[in-house]
Amino acid sequence: MHLELRHLRTVRAIHEQGGLARAAEVLHITQSALSHQVKALEEQAGVELFVRRSRPMRLSAAGMRLLRLAEQVLPLVEAAESELEGVEAGRVGQLHIALECHACFDWLLPVLDQFRRSFPDVDLDIRQRLAFTALPALQREEVDLVISMDPDPLPGIHFEPLFDYSPTLVVPAGHPLTGRGYALPEDLSTERLIVYPMDRERLDVFSEFLTPAGVEPAHVRQVELTDVTLMLVAAGRGVAVMPDWVLRRHAGNPELAFLRLTENGIRRRAFAGMREGDAGLAYMQHFLRLARTDGIRAGRKQG
Prior knowledge:
With 303 residues, the chain is an alpha/beta fold.
């Protein structure tokens, strides 16, 4: 006997509707076509599946066995079909994110909190240990999106600009540089610089400010947590450079002062990298909209 999903749907529909006419309407076929289908199915099975003498029409013992099978199989099939439709429509999927910037957690988490409310069926995750190999991991499909400040052209990878930001020097209130309002690279040659635990080429203070000028700070200390870094700066234990969006919630702290890097300041741009085939997904586009909105808001509050 060769069973198909349409056979199981037929058995279930006739049982639930109590007759061929109403079942045919539910299945969107003619009553004649349904009758032929039932007859062909019974010929395959070699037994009657329905007791036609009863009203409403009911299943025979053999038909009841098929009904139990239908009740087990069809909900699983229908759930899978619904999920696949959601994937095709961009409602269901996976968004595993890697960050090339340590400070991005301060900005990203509120964005993801908004995102999950709109797309609860998208599997969200942050892959923290991939900071130094994020873009290769994106190519290998180990992650789905990378937040990067230094996008490298890679085959099959598409980059979307998110927002501009300003790396900003944080010093203790009353620091001599506060009177000038900005810092030059040589000003940090006598300072203890506190940085996130990342390679130098991924830190704006080195890649955009100190290294091009050939300047080395007096001492470099790595600290992982933003709040700990700012506490150390306030205590006079060093200075730090952070994106302006990180510092927006500390703008009213009287123990800290915020200075531009160079007289005109430095502007950088954050990007989202993704595989080209994922760029048009509905949930990916929604994430980009939220990321841009929150980034722009951060810049306005800080500016």
